[in-house]
Amino acid sequence: MTDKMINITIDGEPLQVPAGTTVLKAAEKLGINIPRLCYHPNLSIEGACRVCVTQVKGFNHFLTACSQEVWEGMDIQTNSPEIRQARRDIVELLLDNHPKDCQTCERDGNCELQKQAYRLGVRERHFEGQRKRYPVEDSGKSVVRNPEKCILCGRCVRVCAEVQGVNNLSQHGRGFHTVVGPANLVNMDDSVCIQCGQCVAVCPTAAFLEQDHTERVWEALALPRDVKHVVVHTAPAIRATMGEMFGLPMGTPVTGKLVTALRRLGFDAVFDTNFGADLTIIEEATEFLSRMEKGENLPLLTSCSPGWVNFLEKFYPELIPHTSTCKSPMQMMSTLLKTYYAEKKGLDPKDIYVVAIMPCVAKKFEAGRSEHTMADGIPYTDAVLTTRELGWMIKSYGIDFEALPDGEFDRPLGVSSGAADIFGATGGVMEAALRTAAVKLTGEELGPLDFVEVRGVTGLKEASLKINGVEINIAVSNGLTNAKHILDAATAGGKKYHLIEIMACPGGCIMGGGQPYPPLDWDPMDPEIARTRAKALYDIDSHKQLRRSHENPAIEHLYAEFLGQPNGEKAHELLHTHYNARMPRGIR
Amino acid sequence: MSHAIANTDNWAEVKAACEAVLPKHILDFIEANHGQAHSESQLIAILHLVQGHFGFLGQEQMHAVAQLAQIPLAKVTGVATFYHYFRLQPRGKHIINVCLGTACYVKGADKLSQRLMDELGIQFGETTKDGLFSLESTRCLGTCGLAPVIMVDDQVYGPVSPAEASLIVDKYLKKEKGAKAEAAKA
After folding, report:
1. Residues of chain A with pLDDT under 50
2. How many folded domains does chain B comprise?
3. Whole-angstrom distance, CA of residue B182 vs CA of residue B186
4. Is position A130 within any domain?
5. A490 contacts in B (CB within 8 Å)?
6. Are residues A570 and A440 part of one domain?
7. For residue A278, which of A113, A122, A195, A549 is within the disulfide window of CB 3.0 to 4.6 Å?
8. Residue B4 has pLDDT above 80, yes or no
9. Which of A321, A584, A587 sits opposite B6 (nearest CB)?
10. What are the pLDDT digits (tens) for A478-500?
């Protein structure tokens, strides 16, 4: 795009826009939203759905606003009886090849196809033709694929390739028989899928969804208390986003209401995954400082994001020795619940049912990993609910979320520092680790607290810090294409990093594949959503008395009473894991 | 990352396994493209070579192409399933092409097709269990004067009635049986 300005007319109104602007973007400047389905501002232009057709003077065919750049003197019409008819027909034809099951669809009320059908005035159905028929592919642990709902917009294909660098999805076949899926249309778990769920997040319909765990949770909650002790812990990012499920403004912190809602649902104890996050920092900072001391296996790569861990095993297996062996906060927390907590409560781990509330689709896959099961095959985490799933359960129960009083997490596994809250945003794990590492390195109890250089939702951040004379080169990435850049730079040997935080989803957990769909006038993945949600977490952090993970008294107590030393034998056995190269190998 | 660390990489094994799947001329072709600008645009050419050698594109071969040419497998299978020319199933020893062009069609290609499907027990695009015949359809072969025509391998037959179609199939079957008996004797 150059600075050259182009004169155009939209709906009779003259307008100047920079050269290279598309008709769709130019119309937005006038406050006109041209309908769109396949278009996404963060992805390449596909021009597949044709819903954004416009008329341009001098042309006897329609031009697609998303892909057409303006030219000098262009005279555009965004609305006319012909355009309205064409758009209506286009959406009607899409509907014609789509199940007529809005009432029972997961996306009812939050579906972009449904929205456009209503907006464009599809009130009758004139066409009746053959409809594609496919079974739902739901044998994967995290991601469910339903080709019948697919409108072939290709957003999932593009997000998977462009944002995540995974390239797992593609259109197979041609014409009426086109179907989107992984190579050879296998189960997602057998493909190079890393289970991040960004395909779910950007899908305009319900062609991709998370594997449903709500039914098993309802069943567990219905069992008598002495049969199953059902406990729950909720991830840092949930408190910043659950309000959106109930119409609260984006970025409203709802920690207290969330706790109360979980108690109303019938959970016997409500804990905070934050505790696991604080514990992760103690273990990871210890691991980091020990590696710094020995100068081995640097840079240390974080391991909290299960989408990233899947990416590591399939795409960068040679970097396994660099990756922190720390389990994710979810798995640390669930492990403690079935060991430490079970012991304290005098319960058999078999009688405890652990539910984790996560912003993440990949957490379902992580919970099912054989590394995360007890000796007798019982998983540490029994069910993982996404923010969306729990939001639905709260609605389904009939709880008036907005009116709920604030509750408090159960102790001691509900006590946490502000460092844990910010785990949900990109850069948060890094900042939390630095807060603790700085104190350990300087030996001063009041080391630096706000590492603003790692904040913000950009995809890649780098900084060089000097703490107590020690230089630490750090990098923070979100969206795995960004991770590729940093990992390739690190392996090429040009730049020496010491610590790299990697989160799979663009913006971090606050933009995870399991987070609420934004309102229909927003684009999924809009960075403004990430900024607003992240702000909620940093606000919670700044208002907490405890800001550093190692200051958490409950953590200190846990080590004294149960775990021993950080990175010690027991801590290692319970809180650390291992990774293996996995097939199929991804192409990076 | 300068330190000597445990080798957790599986690339050497993956590469070796993939190289074992493809013949040398295809490996050489992929290797020659390696590092060239837009080398991924050679995908179709590679798939032609694979189909030329194996008669079809098997999953194992496509996986090997993806790894060795470093093109995501989903893209490989996306291309392979898009083009009508690429086959994902093995083809029979003899290919029976039924012309479904206009002239052949009005002269009864539909009845001819039905007879062949019944006779062979397969649909268009399929291969008999014994691997002897594949049934395919084609558009005009340029011999409309002989309509309706079928083509077996490189040999054109026409005009062919349904009964004659059965005889043609029998002829090839007998030839195969004879060849088998010869082989057994030898």
Report:
1. none
2. 2
3. 6
4. no
5. 1
6. yes
7. A549
8. no
9. A321
10. 999 999 999 998 888 777 899 99
Domain residues for the domain of B135 are: 94-185
Distance from CA of B184 to the nearest CA of A (A): 40
Taking 60 as the threshold, does the pLDDT of residue B1 lie above it? Answer: no
- What's the CATH code of the domain at B167? 3.40.30.10
Residue where a domain terminates, one of A210, A235, A251: A210
Residue with tokens 């469910």: A144
Q: Is B58 part of a structural domain of the chain?
A: yes
The rounded distance, in Å, linking the Cα atoms of A472 and A450 is 16
A520 occurs within a structural domain: yes
Q: CB–CB of A174 and B82 under 8 A?
A: yes
Residues 6+ apart with CB under 8 A from A227: A351
Neighbours of A255 (CB within 10 A): 21
| Segments forming the whole domain that contains residue A343 | 215-575
Closest-approach residue (CA) in chain A for B9: A318
The DSSP symbol for B96 reads: E
| CB proximity A488 to B under 8 Å | no
Question: Which among B10, B59, B67 is the nearest to A317, CB-wise?
Answer: B10
Give the model's pLDDT for residue A2.
Answer: 57
What pLDDT sits at residue B3? 45
Q: With an 8 Å Cβ cutoff, is A374 touching chain B?
A: no
The set of residues, in sequence order, having a beta carbon less than 8 Å from that of A63 and lying 6+ positions away, is A23, A53, A54, A55, A56
Q: Is A490 on the interface with B (CB under 8 A)?
A: yes
Per-residue pLDDT at A469: 87
What's the pLDDT tens digit per position in B84-114? 889 898 889 999 999 999 999 999 999 999 9
CB contact under 8 A, B8 and A321: yes
Give residue A180's pLDDT.
Answer: 98
CA distance A58 to B134: 52
Joined tokens for residue A235: 């991830």
Residue in chain B nearest A487 by alpha carbon:
B1
Residue A6: how many CA atoms within 13 Å on its side-chain side?
20
Contact with chain A for residue B109, Cβ under 8 A: no
Q: What is the ipTM of this complex?
A: 0.93
